[in-house]
Specification:
Layout: E1 5-8, H1 13-24, E2 30-33, H2 44-49, E3 58-61, E4 64-67, H3 69-80, H4 88-118, H5 126-146, H6 160-165, H7 183-193, H8 201-204
Parallel strand pairs: 1-2
Antiparallel strand pairs: 1-3, 3-4
Helix pairs in contact: 1-3, 4-5
Length: about 220
């Protein structure tokens, strides 16, 4: 039987949270690199056979296709019994922070990082980029305050809410986030990276762009 296949690429924080969850849960799967920056995710073949939304991540297994990182994390974590809320209230808290992240933190950090680093320079809109960075910083303030005296986002132990909220915060590219400026977030990111099996996104997934040479 073929292994589950995760469509992803290293620069995608959305793909990272799904790949990180599957890896930490011990899922036996393979990755399929998506050449996103050369238009593969918008190609007729991809839209017809992989994901009509034109996005990553995508998980294919047993003849079924799952899209959206939150869905993939929910599926894998509940199947393995790991990184899930242990009570109904904790489940709702995981859901609350996952939705918040998608709407506020990653929902702003992802586009800000893309526009600032990966969009061709002639297409970059400075005012839009600054707006997105402003929204990212506002979301980071919420997370920083929430993590005061806490080790994890949604419970007293790691959950998929942590994987969702952290998914853009290990990347080195500029998008308004400087880790040293946020001591509670910095401590929390260290907690996640100390989990057995954790990997940086550029180690966990194949990246589209080679690392820049040191200055």
């Amino acid at each position: 039987m073929a292994k589950p296949l995760l469509y992803c690429f290293g620069e995608s924080g959305n793909a990272y949270r799904a790949a990180l969850c599957m890896t930490l849960c011990g899922a036996d799967y393979e990755q399929r690199f998506v050449d996103f920056f050369n238009g593969e995710a918008r190609s007729p073949e991809y839209l017809a056979n992989v994901n009509p939304m034109g996005e990553v991540p995508v998980l294919q297994r047993d003849g079924k296709t799952y899209t959206q990182s939150a869905v993939i994390m929910d599926l894998i974590s509940k199947e393995t019994g790991q990184f899930i809320g242990q009570t109904r209230e904790e489940e709702l808290e995981v859901l609350r922070w996952t939705i918040w992240d998608n709407q506020k933190l990653s929902g702003s950090a992802g586009p800000a990082r893309f526009m600032t680093n990966f969009l061709p320079e002639k297409l970059r809109k400075v005012d839009v980029g600054q707006f997105l960075i402003g929204r990212t910083l506002a979301a980071l303030k919420v997370l920083e305050k929430h993590l005061e005296g806490r080790d994890w986002v949604a419970a007293d132990y790691p959950t998929t809410a942590d994987f969702s909220c952290c998914s853009y915060l290990y990347y080195p590219e500029e998008f308004g986030f400087t880790r040293a400026d946020w001591p509670n977030i910095d401590r929390w990111l260290s907690n996640i990276s100390e989990l057995d099996g954790w990997q940086h996104p550029y180690d966990l997934m194949h990246r589209a762009f080679p690392p820049k040479a040191a200055a």
